Each structure stands twice: as structure tokens, then as C-alpha cells.
């Protein structure tokens, strides 16, 4: 791979900055939309009621779009750039697509999270979609890498699925950057089930951003 | 990897079956919730209005939950089991998390899709989250594999990120199973930008389900 395309500057986006008090309100809104998302996947109301709710949802969307940003905002107080990306589809507190996974990077350099995934993330019946596991691991690997060496983008990601990952129970995710070589960072991460068995294992290569 | 855990039967879920006319209504509902999701990520309304909308969203969720299924329903007429999984987080028409990616498998065995991703799928500013690309590729690889050899689960997935994948423009995704060896199927897939350049390349190993 040529480094140029992946190494290009992602670094100076102009974004609205949302202070913590506004973030709390937007987070609440996203939590409610998450619940609506799960309800949409599981509802068994009759078609007339579903259609009536659709119309009401459209009206609420119009209210939110009355003032709309050009791009997702950032938060002022999150840790590192990834911590500020509140619109992120894995960790983003204001993004209803994100479970959201709350990642903490310890002094030992290990990025840790615990998450219970609902039916909206289902792949094989009753289990987490393999691609959802990949999505979460990519993010945790990126955050471990950012903590160890600075912001970076994924160049390669390798996943080994050891056993099915269950929905509806707390999963543990851990990731750590193992090695920095020039602009490349190597990292590993796992998802474990409540019995402590690794369900998915990932290794990744990142390319550091910036000059 | 022991094959036993991944090879366990995912094959006989008891699911409600949604006929096409009900599916159309639920699909409409999911489309509206998708728009609400994007609006949630981008809204700049004041906190009072955001809080008011939150409360209304909660009320709509309660209406949908008045009759709630135990698990996501299937559709009766989709192609193959994956085609029937209307709650799937990549292709599922009734899942607001899914973009949704509409995949068609041709007579040549190639699974093809075209999708434009909005700001809710952002990773590096203005680009698709690397994990979202992984999520989509895993699904397309699985569908190409299912078409070639039958339903299967991912055992291994390898991604190479060649250049950033842009948001807001039509992306082309193609996948194909290349080889079947016993219960293992090998497949490859790519995401290409509107200029036809491959942005992400994936290879995967699947394990066939069933007896």
C-alpha cells in the first residue's frame, strides 16, 4: 500500500464544538432514538399504527433539521480527538447507531470497555453480527493506538472468530498497542463473553496521522 | 480454532414471519427512523427543543412497544436466509442501524451493492469509519458465500485499507466466494469509490452451517 492516500491529513476538520451541558441533552436524545431503533426492529403493532408512528417520526426529524449542522459536532472536553468525536458510530454519545461503547484507556495502555448489545446488532440468530464485532474492535484498537502513539488510521485489520458472541449479556472488550515502528503501530484486541472466553480476536496495523 | 463452537446450529430460530405488505410499512418506519438518526447527529436546535423532541421520541417508542416481539422477525419472501433477515444491521430493511445495503447476487456468483453513507457512519472526519467498511464487507462476503455454498458464519476476516472511503458519494461493493474446501469457504470483496479505485479490500474464511 502507498502510504500517501491513507496518510493524508484528516487532521483539521472545522467542526462545531458542543459544551458538556448541550452534550448531555443531545446524549439523552440519542438514547431515546436508540430505544426507538430497537422498538422499530421488534414492534408487532398493526400496520395502521406503524404508519401513524412513521408520520410522527418524520415530524420530529423536521423539528431537529430546523437547525442542522454541516457535519457532526465535536465535544470540547473528551480525551484525545477520538474522545471528542461524539458522532462516532461506535463510541459516539450523540449517534443512535453507536451502542454506544464507552472506552477507557488505563495507565497500563489497555483500552477497556463493557457493552451489552441488543437485537438491533444481530447477525446469526441470537448472536452478534460478525461485522459489528469488527466495527467495535476497530474502534477500540484505534483508541489504544491513539493513546500509545497518537491519532492514526487503520491500514490492516485481521479478525479471528473463535465462538459466537452472544447478544443481551455484558461483553468485555480489551485492546492494546503492542509495537510502534516508524509511522506504523501494531495493536491487538479481544471480545470476551461473560464466562471470560474470547469470542473474537483482532490484530491491526495503523498508520499515524499528521506530519 | 475448534470448529464446534462456530459450527453449532444457528439454523432453527423461531421467528415471526412478516409478509411483504407489512414489511413495506415497517420499512417505511425504519426509513423515517434512519432520517431521525442522521438528524440527531447533525441537529443544532437549542437544548429546550432537543429535550422536547426527546420526550416525543420516548412516547413513540412506547407506542411501538405496546406490542413487541421476542426477537427480530424474518420476511417470508427474501432470497435465502440472509435475504429474509430483515432485522440485519447491514441489509435489514426494518433496522434503522442498517444503511441499508441492498445486495444482489448475480448468476456469476458476484454479490453486488451500491451504497451512499451519511454522516452517521463517519470515522476520520469526512470519511467512512473503517469498522463500518468491515461491517459491510463481512455481510457482502457472507452473502456471496451463502449463494455459492450455503449459509455460513465468519471464521476469519482480513481487511486492507488502501485509501480513505468517502462519505456522501455512491460506493460500489463486490464480493465473491472463490473456493470451497470441505466445510470451509474462501471469499473476497472490495469497496470502490466513484472513480473506481478500491478503497478497502477484504478476504474471509467462512464455516458452513448445518449437518
Description:
- 2 copies of one chain form a homodimer.
- With 211 residues, chain A is α+β, with helices and mostly antiparallel strands.
- Chain A has helices spanning 3-7, 20-42, 47-64, 80-84, 130-149, and strands at 17-18, 74-75, 104-105, 111-116, 152-161, 170-181, 184-192, 198-208.
- In chain A, strands 3-4-6-7-8-5 form a 6-stranded antiparallel sheet. Chain A has a two-stranded parallel ribbon with strand order 1-2.
- The longest helix of chain A has 23 residues, at 20-42.
- The radius of gyration of chain A is 19 Å and the shape is globular.
Strands, helices and their partners?
Two copies of one chain form a homodimer.
Chain A: H1 3-7, E1 17-18, H2 20-42, H3 47-64, E2 74-75, H4 80-84, E3 104-105, E4 111-116, H5 130-149, E5 152-161, E6 170-181, E7 184-192, E8 198-208
Parallel strand pairs in A: 1-2
Antiparallel strand pairs in A: 3-4, 4-6, 5-8, 6-7, 7-8
The backbone outline of chain A, from C-alpha atoms, is globular
Number of strands of chain A: 8
Element-level helix/strand string of chain A: HEHHEHEEHEEEE
Low-confidence stretches of chain A: 1-5
Q: What share of residues are in beta strands of chain A?
A: 25-35%
The biggest sheet of chain A amounts to: 6 strands, antiparallel
Spatial strand order of the main sheet of chain A: 3-4-6-7-8-5
The pLDDT mean of chain A sits at 92
Radius of gyration of chain A (CA) equals 19 Å
The largest interface is: A-B, 91 and 91 residues
How many helix segments of chain A?
5
Distance between the termini of chain A: 19 Å
- Helicity level of chain A, as a percent range? 25-40%
Assembly annotation:
homodimer
Going by helix content, strand content and strand pairing, the class of chain A is alpha+beta
Amino acid at each position: 500500500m502507498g502510504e500517501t492516500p491513507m496518510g493524508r491529513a484528516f487532521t483539521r476538520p472545522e467542526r462545531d464544538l458542543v459544551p458538556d451541558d448541550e452534550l448531555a441533552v443531545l446524549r439523552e436524545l440519542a438514547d431515546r432514538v436508540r430505544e426507538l431503533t430497537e422498538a422499530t426492529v421488534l414492534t408487532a403493532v398493526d400496520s395502521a399504527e406503524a404508519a401513524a408512528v412513521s408520520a410522527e417520526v418524520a415530524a420530529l426529524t423536521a423539528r431537529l433539521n430546523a437547525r442542522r449542522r454541516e457535519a457532526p459536532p465535536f465535544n470540547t472536553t473528551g480525551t484525545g480527538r477520538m474522545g471528542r468525536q461524539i458522532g462516532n458510530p461506535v463510541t459516539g454519545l450523540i449517534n443512535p447507531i453507536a451502542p454506544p461503547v464507552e472506552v477507557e484507556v488505563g495507565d497500563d495502555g489497555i483500552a477497556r470497555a463493557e457493552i451489552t448489545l441488543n437485537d438491533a446488532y444481530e447477525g446469526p440468530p441470537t448472536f452478534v453480527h460478525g461485522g459489528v464485532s469488527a466495527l467495535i474492535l476497530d474502534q477500540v484498537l484505534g483508541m489504544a493506538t491513539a493513546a500509545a502513539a497518537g491519532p492514526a488510521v487503520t491500514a490492516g485489520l485481521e479478525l479471528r472468530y473463535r465462538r459466537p458472541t452472544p447478544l443481551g449479556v455484558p461483553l468485555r472488550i480489551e485492546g492494546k498497542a503492542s509495537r510502534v515502528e516508524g509511522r506504523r503501530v501494531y495493536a491487538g484486541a479481544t471480545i470476551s463473553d461473560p464466562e471470560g472466553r474470547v469470542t473474537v480476536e483482532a490484530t491491526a496495523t495503523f498508520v499515524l496521522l499528521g506530519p
